[in-house]
């Protein structure tokens, strides 16, 4: 175990999800205390138990709905009551409704607004409420998960011949997250709170071989990333090694966005 995050208390929203589980494990492995915050409390508890089995005392579960102010405030209060402080929050949750993922022509106005509102709105709400807590505490760290498709226009050609598409909501959401990050960083100037973002490339999750081949053609070597490929940049942004990074976006995509 390294000590880059020695005893730092880090809340990870969507902590029981695909990336969230890996983020929480990386935090614990680096000496921090991972707060697995998820709207599915049983999943959060299961994830925390698995991590704590390997890193005793370094994971704890809490229920969190990022679209509910009451839930966000309850999460903050619970973690603060348990550990006495919160050093950082990672906005990683991925809320979406049952119609998410349709092609542009099939997306309704209502679904577009619902999905953008839940995701960007949820990141705003978590950031707003945690920033209020961090102000009182005297400092804190907010990390927002964006995407390469918040940085560049979608490469629609990689989806040709597959049932996949790049949802319009996703591109709008992730670009919005990046500017929310910059806004917060400047607004919170002088408070001891820093705000940065991570923009990953595609993450391996059972995608069709045809898609993987086309995607890799735009990359420098590996192509689609494994979940573990993001852990180094996360730990860096959470650690004191990045103490003077603020309002920045770190892209990890094997060159896909070039």
Automatic annotation (TrEMBL):
Domain of life: Bacteria
Pfam family, one: adh_short_C2
Keyword vocabulary terms for this entry: Oxidoreductase
Cell inner membrane listed as a keyword: no
Residues making up the signal peptide according to the UniProt record: none
Keyword Nucleus: no
UniProt xrefs under InterPro entries: NAD(P)-bd_dom_sf, SDR_fam
CDD domains attached to this UniProt entry: SDR_c8
NCBIfam families, alphabetized: PRK09186.1
Family per similarity comment: Belongs to the short-chain dehydrogenases/reductases (SDR) family.
Protein name (record): Oxidoreductase
Organism from which the protein derives: Massilia agilis
